[in-house]
């Protein structure tokens, strides 16, 4: 059972390059609930925020966004991407859709004066072999790239023409019948402003570095094969290894590292690209697994009455001193309903023989009763140090019985502000949200929680969903409180699933905008775009 809990969380939270996210994303409350409630074999999820000061309703602030609504029809799934394909200074919206007959279709919407017209500029059917897509910078401009099992193709939606970029062997071998997802495989790995490609295969990762003329160098092969496990019905499944993108050898360039067979395999970046040979090293900090999934594999099938498992969770620079820190996650179990999780932070030390060193005693510890989920790293106050946000659920038979009776579960969001390289033992602030569900109707509501800068002042603001039609914005403050006590209320239709919320600076003005996917039973799906004025 516990094995299932951790697998649910890992499946939701895993990203290809976990330490260098391109855009902020909502806290995965849904993943937290799935994992917690699966202890009772339930499928539950979440609702509205509570315990906040009554919001200030400011007429000028209610309409502080330029809004656009796009209606989509006759689709079973769609993915929303954005890119400034025309070089106009405002991103186009790209809807990748799958229809009932499995046709894959692209619809391109272009904005005028910050507003998107509810009529696509282009509608095109996509090749049947497209498995996933991504956007990136190629030849100094934004492009859409489509990926099959063996090839990446730069695709121009306006002309319908494609240009092959690279060929490869990937672990993604077949299309998904009812999905056309996006995977973050195109990003700037060497800091030159041009996006590169990192493709996971069964032997490891292939890294293609983009050159100034748009051509890609021959791939560097990095030996980090995917992790394989067997499902409950003995079917094999694979997941890519975490990729740690950080400056390992203190030369000012970010390297790539993987945890494989009990050691870090670090591929150093040099003037001419990434090395094809890895430098192996094992820290003195002890742990026996990697991430949620590693703990799942090791706790699965074990007696839960007295077990302690510790895993590598993160490896990146947190305090801004150009030395990576090591973060571990420990799970202590004294029974199915008696769990305690602890994050420990080991501060980076000067290199020894060219490899990172760490204090063997953690500089900071964040622990709580129950289960802590979805640790996020954000520089909330713009001081060059990464702050931590942790969502947690306290377990207990009484609490679960109460949840079944009331249809609600309390989730705490703890905000820990780093000061002088150390996190406090207790959170600077705690916000509480309530998760609700209905057995009779099957209705599920998941509130969105975001830490993004919507005002453009360099400080992260806290955005909390309240019900189906309100968004509360707590402006960021350069104080220990991190956010204002009193929110500004924005009246807007909100999704019931935070996975349908995207954050992006669509008009490149330094303020984050919102893309909302709205699904209302009996109504056509809609995309609502909010561009901050």
Structural class: mainly beta
Radius of gyration: 23 Å
Question: Shape from CA axes?
Answer: globular
Poorly predicted runs of 5 or more residues: 1-23, 35-63
For the report, how would you describe the main beta sheet?
6 strands, antiparallel
What is the number of strand segments?
A: 43
Q: Could you please describe the fold and organization of this structure?
A:
By secondary structure, this protein is mainly β. Helix content is about 10%, strand content about 40%. The protein contains 5 helices and 43 strands. The strands form 12 sheets. Strands 1, 32, 33, 34, 35 and 36 form a 6-stranded antiparallel β-sheet that branches. Helix 1 runs antiparallel to helix 2 and helix 1 runs antiparallel to helix 4 (about 290-300). It is globular, with a radius of gyration of 23 Å. The N and C termini lie far apart (about 50 Å). Residues about 1-25 and about 35-65 have low confidence and may be disordered.
Keywords summarizing the entry:
5 helices; 533 residues; mainly beta
SSE arrangement:
Layout: H1 2-13, H2 29-37, E1 49-50, H3 59-62, E2 65-72, E3 77-83, E4 92-98, E5 104-109, E6 111-112, E7 115-116, E8 122-125, E9 132-138, E10 141-147, E11 151-156, E12 161-167, E13 186-187, E14 196-200, E15 205-208, E16 220-222, E17 227-230, E18 236-239, E19 244-246, E20 255-260, E21 263-267, E22 269-270, E23 273-274, E24 279-281, E25 289-290, H4 291-299, E26 307-316, E27 325-333, E28 339-346, E29 348-352, E30 355-358, E31 364-369, E32 371-378, E33 387-393, H5 397-406, E34 408-416, E35 429-437, E36 444-445, E37 449-452, E38 461-465, E39 470-474, E40 488-491, E41 501-504, E42 513-518, E43 525-532
Parallel strand pairs: 25-26
Antiparallel strand pairs: 1-35, 2-43, 3-4, 4-5, 5-8, 6-7, 9-10, 10-11, 11-12, 13-14, 14-15, 15-16, 17-18, 19-20, 20-21, 21-24, 22-23, 26-27, 27-28, 28-31, 29-30, 32-33, 33-34, 34-35, 35-36, 37-38, 38-39, 39-40, 41-42, 42-43
Helix pairs in contact: 1-2, 1-4
